């Protein structure tokens, strides 16, 4: 809760939605929150969409309860306002992203497996009560898709799929120029897709899915451990503790075992992209998330995707990285303030 | 070319798009064509959307060339006008459905594997030249989806997937209240989806796909033959010649072998519906086409779909059957005449 991030490169966004032309952008502010599984990130932006402050904190288990999260968010708003030399009363709108299926119309997080006790949480109402600020609650991967469309790898592309690969695997779907949510807010739950060569499985809401188990971060790390063991290198403690993106770094440096892990992951990801392409025929796939945004995964996956005549979407790594959700949140809040809610 | 169908039950549609209120519906007409793999069907409707004539003909191989098809369609228009005691000049718009990937913006059929020589055929321009009538060219399964939305099983549902199972297997996707085509007009090519328990395959445009090979009509008939052989009933000539929907009829009567075939088909179809549901989360799946519209397939598939917590779309059989494409064509032509092209 003490950590105040300095403003980095990607943060002063420069661009703005064309409809927002204001002579005094500091007349008011909008805020975005990304409630992650282990970390909460926030951004404050002026009405031109320019980030003026950021804040983030690590959760303790206890702090992950819905009410505690709302208190932390309120504290984050105050802290960012101090940075920007303004007051919370000047914040006109807030958008919060949660890592789970979210009913945007009712502002309710239906289920978030990585946050204990988050079933049917009325996040929007709770935040509005806590902060007094009009709020949107959205799924975090959907926010990342909106962010990439506004400021990132999917600028000007009205038909794309954002794939988030971190601990979990999910997709944000952008069609007909706006987010597509599905009938029960669960469109894009690709972590439950079946994987070629495995047994049939009936997806269960409170269990992780087949694709996620295999190419989510922990699945990749498990494959790496198995290969290390077979190769009798498991005694190297430093090697055995690598996380997925570090394994991909090693692959980039030419380590043959790591290349195997990268290639297997890329093949399975390419199969999923093949399925997505058969159904959506998107113009672009953006690979994001802590594991998915790794450049060498994008390149390795492209080779497999090229073999599929029905899947010629361009593949791009996320250009906003862990900021994508926050940019998406700011974009939705700007649209809400402007009365032109697009998604 | 000699066959003139009498007007059947489903044809005098009754309903009409709400924006079409005309005092003299016979002021003009619109026409729809469904170019099938073996049969061409046509419908003429007044400006209230009421069918006033129908016509259909079987193709010879030679008649399937694009130019010959346009000539047949022109002849069909004249024949329907004779039936309705009007003239071709009173037809204000025509929509033609082709069994292949169709670029609606350019009116070009990109590829239609079941019609030899149909690669990049400028169907819209050819028909406009032949008939002098403004034309839309669309994919036939997409037309069927529009038809079911207008007059059939998906009335008032703005988020559904129409699955066509006949010789081929494909899907028409209706999202945000309108058809979704994808970036290169190939959204919904589900015939190429992988099937659990089979080997990885890279979809190739000019070959049939894995799902289609297994649960398309010929695939079902092949499974039936294999089971008959194992059961030593293949000597029964009448049994060995059954088509897929007749095999389902037998299952309905309680034949154990036929029930096996039905159950296997339903399981694989349910897997595909599971995949579709993970990605689109549709409110409804409509099962159509000569094989897919069979009531007992819908019931058998429902049982498997129920096991999937992420797939709770309602399942319904098509209520328009082989007329769905024609209703869709009429609906698009009415919208075009009315200047409110919705899809």
Topology diagram in text:
2 copies of one chain form a homodimer.
Chain A: E1 29-35, E2 39-46, E3 51-58, H1 66-84, E4 91-98, E5 101-103, E6 108-111, E7 119-121, H2 123-131, E8 135-139, H3 140-151, E9 160-165, E10 169-175, E11 178-179, H4 210-215, H5 217-230, H6 237-240, H7 244-252, H8 256-280, E12 284-288, H9 289-292, H10 295-305, E13 314-317, H11 324-337
Parallel strand pairs in A: 1-4, 4-8, 9-12, 12-13
Antiparallel strand pairs in A: 1-2, 2-3, 5-6, 6-7, 9-10, 10-11
Helix pairs in contact in A: 1-2, 3-11, 5-8, 7-8, 8-10
What can you tell me about this protein's structure?
Two copies of one chain form a homodimer. With 343 residues, chain A is α/β, with parallel strands linked by helices. Chain A is built from eleven helices and 13 strands. In chain A, the strands form three sheets. Chain A has a five-stranded mixed β-sheet with strand order 3-2-1-4-8, with helices on both faces. Chain A has a five-stranded mixed β-sheet with strand order 11-10-9-12-13, sandwiched between helices. In chain A, strands 5-6-7 form a three-stranded antiparallel β-sheet. In chain A, strand 6 and strand 7 form a beta hairpin. In chain A, helix 5 packs antiparallel against helix 8, helix 7 packs across helix 8 and helix 8 packs across helix 10.
* Cα separation of the termini of chain A: 31 Å
Strand content of chain A: 15-25%
What letter string, H or E per element, gives the SSE order of chain A?
EEEHEEEEHEHEEEHHHHHEHHEH
The total of helices of chain A stands at: 11
Overall morphology of chain A: globular
Which structural class fits the helix and strand makeup of chain A?
alpha/beta
Largest inter-chain interface?
A-B, 45 and 45 residues
Beta strands of chain A, count: 13
Largest sheet of chain A: 5 strands, mixed
Say what oligomer this is.
homodimer
Global mean pLDDT of chain A? 89
């Amino acid at each position: 809760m003490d950590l105040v991030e300095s403003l980095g490169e990607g943060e002063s966004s420069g661009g703005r939605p064309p409809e927002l032309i204001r002579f005094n952008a500091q007349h008011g502010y909008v805020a975005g929150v990304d409630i992650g599984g282990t970390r909460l990130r926030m951004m404050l932006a002026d009405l031109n969409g320019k980030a003026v402050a950021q804040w983030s904190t690590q959760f303790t288990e206890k702090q992950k309860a819905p009410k505690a999260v709302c208190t932390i968010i309120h504290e984050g708003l105050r802290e960012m306002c101090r940075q920007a030399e303004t007051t919370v009363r000047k914040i006109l709108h807030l958008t919060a992203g949660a890592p789970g299926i979210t009913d945007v119309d009712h502002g309710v997080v239906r289920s978030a497996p990585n946050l204990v006790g988050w079933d049917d949480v009325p996040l929007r109402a709770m935040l509005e009560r806590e902060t007094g600020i009009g709020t949107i609650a959205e799924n975090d991967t959907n926010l990342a898709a909106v962010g990439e469309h506004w400021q990132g790898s999917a600028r000007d592309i009205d038909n794309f799929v954002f794939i988030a690969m971190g601990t979990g695997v999910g997709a944000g779907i952008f069609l007909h120029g706006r987010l597509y949510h599905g009938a029960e807010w669960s469109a894009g739950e690709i972590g439950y897709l079946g994987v070629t060569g495995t047994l049939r499985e009936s997806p269960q809401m409170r269990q992780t899915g087949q694709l996620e188990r295999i190419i989510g971060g922990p699945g990749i790390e498990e494959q790496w451990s198995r290969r290390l063991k077979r190769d009798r290198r498991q005694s190297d403690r430093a090697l055995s503790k690598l996380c997925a993106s570090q394994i991909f770094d090693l692959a980039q440096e030419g380590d043959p075992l790591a290349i195997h892990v990268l290639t297997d992951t890329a093949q399975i990801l390419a199969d999923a992209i093949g399925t997505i392409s058969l159904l959506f025929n998107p113009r672009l796939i953006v690979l994001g998330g802590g594991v998915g945004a790794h450049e060498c995964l994008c390149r390795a996956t492209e080779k497999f995707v090229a073999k599929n005549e029905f899947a010629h979407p361009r593949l791009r790594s996320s250009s906003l990285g862990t900021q994508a959700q926050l940019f998406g949140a700011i974009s939705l809040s700007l649209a809400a303030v402007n009365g032109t809610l697009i998604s």
